[in-house]
Design brief:
The structure holds two protein chains of two kinds. Chain A is of the alpha+beta class. In chain A, 26% of the residues lie in helices and 28% in strands. The chains are: A alpha+beta, B alpha+beta.
């Protein structure tokens, strides 16, 4: 911190209040980027040794997410997924590896359906979804990504209470129009396991995942552009 | 030759397919491989496993099919020789 004035802010990520200590001069930028996540709740974990250079916002995005994931490991199923919600709180999770279009889906379709996350969707065993409306990571994989807030992008607000409605395994392979097909639970489990953080910390992980899958739609979708997915999402969540 | 199952982190039988978690890897087994694993249990001979599989699925065109699958399941660490 090299002695410069610092400000403590607390953001809620995946149901976890995370304290971040940032330079006072950057506090407004951080508040703005994390406008959907600021909370007055007491923090359960703190991040203090942040790199305060140009990449502060990107580092915050990564480290807040990792800190929240570590706290929730063992109690929630955490998928590499973007999430969007209907006004009734039903959530579609778009499951995909890093750098394959999750943020693009979130910022494209999030103008119509409520923004839940562009990176991690956490699901409790009873199907409750824990929101993570972090700044949206915009930019090439591996590069220094811009971190615009959900508000600055005009993304819709998700309801406070969220439940998983559908899991969609994304394949961005150029299919136009998108092709969607159901995936049976047995075939979905290995693919979803590959996109899960801290799978081994969950008690009886396969049993938990299978129980959740019994209550939701599980699809595989081949597509080209995020905007092409609107009819699919409308079908799963209804008109926003 | 006798084989038995190795400990796994978790497993679930869905219809006739077994999904198994071994360390951090999750594997979906087809119906015959699933039946072989279940028949092996705490320990079984190849003949005993073949009898279970043939009773359920009939005689395979390849007489070495069960031996071959036992070998594959052993290679991925789901069975071990006794």
């Amino acid at each position: 911190m090299s002695g410069e004035p610092a400000v403590s802010l607390t953001v809620r990520a995946l149901g976890v209040a995370v304290e971040v200590v940032v330079p006072a001069a950057r506090a407004d930028a951080v508040r703005s980027a994390w406008s959907r996540s600021l909370t007055a709740a007491p923090a359960v974990v703190g991040l203090r040794s942040l790199d305060h250079g140009e990449s502060l916002l990107q580092e915050l995005s990564t480290r807040v997410t990792l800190a929240a994931i570590e706290v929730q490991a063992g109690s929630a199923w955490m998928l590499h997924a973007a999430g969007l919600a209907s006004r009734a709180g039903e959530v579609v999770a778009f499951v995909a590896p890093s750098g394959t279009g999750k943020s693009t889906i979130a910022r494209t379709l999030g103008k119509r359906w409520g923004y839940v996350s562009d990176e991690t969707v956490a699901v409790r065993p009873d199907g409750e979804v824990l929101p993570h409306p972090k700044p949206v990571s915009v930019g090439p994989p591996g590069g220094n990504k811009a971190q615009p807030s959900a508000d600055s992008l005009g993304l819709a607000q998700a309801p406070a209470e969220l439940r998983l409605k559908a899991l969609v395994l994304m394949q961005r392979d150029g299919a136009t129009p998108p092709v969607a097909s159901p995936v049976r639970t047995a075939a979905a489990l290995p693919r979803l396991a590959e996109q899960t953080s801290y799978l081994g910390r969950l008690p009886r992980p396969l049993t938990l995942m299978a129980r959740v899958l019994e209550t939701v739609d599980v699809l595989e979708v081949h597509y080209a552009e995020a905007v092409d997915l609107e009819p699919l999402v409308a079908g799963l969540l209804g008109e926003a | 030759m006798r084989v038995r199952r190795t400990p796994v982190c978790d497993e679930i039988l869905l219809g006739d397919e077994l999904v198994v978690m071994l360390d951090s890897t999750v594997v979906l087994l087809g119906p015959i491989a699933s039946r072989i694993l279940l028949a092996a249990g705490q320990g079984a001979t190849l003949a005993e496993i073949e009898a279970v599989v043939y009773a359920e699925f009939g005689l395979p065109p390849d007489p070495e099919a069960v031996v071959s699958q036992v070998g594959e399941l052993t290679a991925v660490g789901l069975l071990e020789s006794l």
